[in-house]
Records
---
Amino acid sequence: MKKKKAKEKIKARSVPFSQTRTRHASETAEDYVEAVMDLIDETGECRVLDLARFFNVSHVTVSRTVKRLNDQDLLLTQSYKPIELTEKGYKLAKKSKKRHEIVLDFLIKLGVDKANAEIDSEGIEHHVSSKTLDAMKRFLK
Amino acid sequence: MKKKKAKEKIKARSVPFSQTRTRHASETAEDYVEAVMDLIDETGECRVLDLARFFNVSHVTVSRTVKRLNDQDLLLTQSYKPIELTEKGYKLAKKSKKRHEIVLDFLIKLGVDKANAEIDSEGIEHHVSSKTLDAMKRFLK
DNA sequence: CATCATCCGTAGCCATTGCTACATTTGTCC
DNA sequence: GGACAAATGTAGCAATGGCTACGGATGATG
């Protein structure tokens, strides 16, 4: 093993890789509260099937996820009733939406067409630190 | 139901989420082949435990994922032997690394400090379309 | 108020990504 | 060549997120 020094440095790089499962779970939470907020805002209420159509998944997937987010105190649900946001969920939704808008506007100003900007901003928004968000804000000015 | 029109428009928005979900599937593959390439380059070989330390997960998780990527013809593995890249895996690794570098350089030029740029570029790189990548390249010039 | 369509919940399947605990292989050192 | 440590594999559990199939709840309409 000739390059031992190099191997010793490897561990340091694990920092950027947060646990994929955990990360995906909080991405879902952000997407859901944001969608619930938008749907209530635009249509007056948010139903399981609205979310299913919004995310293009089955109502079963939505139902299970909504139940989990209810347990996490982000949403309020009752069987066969519209979905509401908790205070905590509403705060997260506003923060996510704000960040999403900044990323979207940023990509458009960077010269990306609207369709691609919308797709990419959806994926990117969950991986943007406050420092990067600040840099995007500066660029927008 | 007064705001029916608004509800009818919801379906159209599912597109970005479908794309994001599809990308999640290949994220792991890209991270792994890129890591394997880097580890071979820097230390001469790539072992299961090297990847475990690199990603900060258990060797079991790595072992299982490596087996799957072997089935997908991206990696070559034999029990208790170093991990190698296939031609297909090497091509994907080079492409991923290139994209990763562009995103990282882009964030730094945007004014993000190196530490945050490294973390964010790792998450962002998987959600950048070719259009957005082109826009980043233009910005770098 | 009965019926029927729509909405939603539950059961139960699969894949991915995490883990611990335990078994096996490999390589090194005496 | 035996023993021991390190590396790797296997078994099996949990959480998340996808699905279909089926059944119960709700609300609108006759």
---
Amino acid sequence: MQDLSNFRKNQQFSPFAESSDDMLKETRHEHILNEVRIRNRVLLADIAHQLEVSEDTVRRDLKELDLAGKLKKVHGGAIAKSFNPFSFHEEEIYDHANKAIIAEKAIQLLRNKQVILITGGTTNLEFVNSIPREMHLTFFTPSLHVAMQLSQHKNVETILIGGKVSRDAQIALGAEALNTLNLIKADLCFLGTGHLDLDHGLSEFDWDVVQLKRAMIRSSEKIISLTLSTKLNSTQQYKICDITAIHTLVTELDPSNPILEPFHKKGIKIL
Amino acid sequence: MQDLSNFRKNQQFSPFAESSDDMLKETRHEHILNEVRIRNRVLLADIAHQLEVSEDTVRRDLKELDLAGKLKKVHGGAIAKSFNPFSFHEEEIYDHANKAIIAEKAIQLLRNKQVILITGGTTNLEFVNSIPREMHLTFFTPSLHVAMQLSQHKNVETILIGGKVSRDAQIALGAEALNTLNLIKADLCFLGTGHLDLDHGLSEFDWDVVQLKRAMIRSSEKIISLTLSTKLNSTQQYKICDITAIHTLVTELDPSNPILEPFHKKGIKIL
DNA sequence: AAAAATCAAGCAAATAAATGCAGGATTTAT
DNA sequence: ATAAATCCTGCATTTATTTGCTTGATTTTT
């Protein structure tokens, strides 16, 4: 015990003391993460000693870093987490709350062992993210984002559809993607981010995306559209298909909402 | 103007006044981001008024949010940024500094108009990230991470190789990927994350990855290995090819380093 | 099952960050 | 080119956070 207090005093007056005492939290976090990356496992006591702060402080640091997903806290220290240099921030998605509502409803449509086609878009991403971890499913997708998110699910088999990557939407397009789709027959197809109109059907502004969606529709038994109500009754340049091609429409609105009535009359199931 | 002061007073004494004045920075940031997401463009003065804080505070907030990449600050306000829910944190890559050295050296091997095959792995990611934006190149890759990073480059055409996605490495594998590779003849092939040994050649522990790399080697004129020196002279379960299949070896070490001498003797170019 | 180590919650003092303001520099609009 | 608006830099004050400590609960080790 006396040793410790002596040590502290020495440090304080020594000309070789660390250049600055400004052990800010940020700085400590950097240090800890570095240590964890290199050694793969650190002891709480070691860090506290290295940084000359109390163990409580380090404990709190580790707790925070754990919560932030940057390491795994264990009794007496922390261990490294297998690291993914890409992180997903769902809270930054536009109109995230409504998309989450849609996602929740759409989950009901899933059954174990189904084979599913799914496009890109943040609504679909939200949906994929909320799939229960215990479901056993097979997904085909041309979307980089969706594929990445799907591969977090232990019981989901993800098959990436290849092709030329579109810079903005980050999905594979072109002949190769279309060829692959021709070989598939899926149970469900989730179409994201589209424009829907009673008379003009589904439409898009990118021709290549139109081709892709047409191919996906051909390759699937049932077509499901996850759509924010703001996209209803809006059209774009190129038509994908008639509105009746859709079997189920999922929006953030209550199914009894009058806006959805005409869609229901056309024989579309509303969720 | 009088209106304004009245409005404020009313707010303050009204039973319907906002639940609390605790306009913490975090809360404000949330509010600002929401506003920007919805309106796509906000005025500094408006926000300051809405939140009842000084314009300086809002200015500082916008500056911070801009720095964090969450919006774009402009004169008098801010506009939304096209949003990517996945963000790339290169600083969190293990042994990032050395990988950056390797990446820098490897850039020299690139020529405009080349067609290039590239696998996954953080070293390759680092390399892709440091490709000069003005280079015109075509890349084929089975890696989700690499494809995402490549699509940030305006003058790079990215073609995703499809297949079954491996959960850990996040690359496409299997028959489909192999078939696609059979159709390609590339100028260069960048092999990442492998184990290299003078006698036992290149090796891997995942059989599917071995198949993929073999196919990539077959489909390319020149093979380049970006390898941390710690991976030199180590082997894994399954052999990919002889060491002599490699044309150029790039490590973080100086080319004259004796560790590299035996590789040079085998006819491999060292960078 | 007892002893040692580690954790968790609450607290007061120390510390860092945030805020509004004032002045002068820039930028935009007219 | 001039006026108006916006921005930047310090600064003092307020405000929130951080920190080490204490005590009692858990967990691990022997």
